[in-house]
Amino acid sequence: MAIKLVDSELKVMNVIWRLGEPTAKQVAEILQAEVGWNVNTTYTLIKRCINKGAVQREEPHFQCRALIDKAAVQAAATDELINKIYDGSADQLFAALLGRKQLTEEKLAELREIVGDWQ
Fold this sequence. Notes:
This protein has helices at 7-19, 24-34, 39-52, 70-85, 90-99, 105-118, and strands at 55-58, 63-66. It is mostly helical.
């Protein structure tokens, strides 16, 4: 069973994934600049991620190490979206995504290549 993270916890995880093994202070500084959160908010969210088994606290200096892979979290969230909104139909999701934005011929060619690789 995948660990379920809420949006605010994902913001914390994205900083940890981006930096590798940052200190809690570094995470707090980045999220203060990017989102406007105060230190206590960030520390509370880090502790929630620790309690869920997504982050491990290491010393010295309260270093944060991700225990879950970003790609696995993305895959689980994508599966949940497909099942919840598109009744399990990945092709409906794909069609909806393509319909939201005009794509250049170059991007269309890239998508054709990706789809071709899956066949």
